[in-house]
Amino acid sequence: MDFASIIGLIGGAVCIVVSVIASGGSIRNILDIPSIFMTVGGSLFAMFIAAPLKKALGLFKIMGRAFKVHDFGEKNIVINMQALSEKARREGILALEDSLEDLDDAFMKMGLRLVVDGTDGNIIRAIMENEMSQCEARHLEWISIINTWAGFAPGFGMMGTVVGLIGMLNNLEDKSSLGPNMAVALVTTLYGCMMANWLISPFSTKLLAHNAAEMRTKEMIIEGVLAIQAGENPRIMAQKLLTYLDPVTRKAIEADVLKD
Question: Could you give phi then psi for residue 105, rounded to 5 degrees?
Answer without folding.
Answer: -85, 115
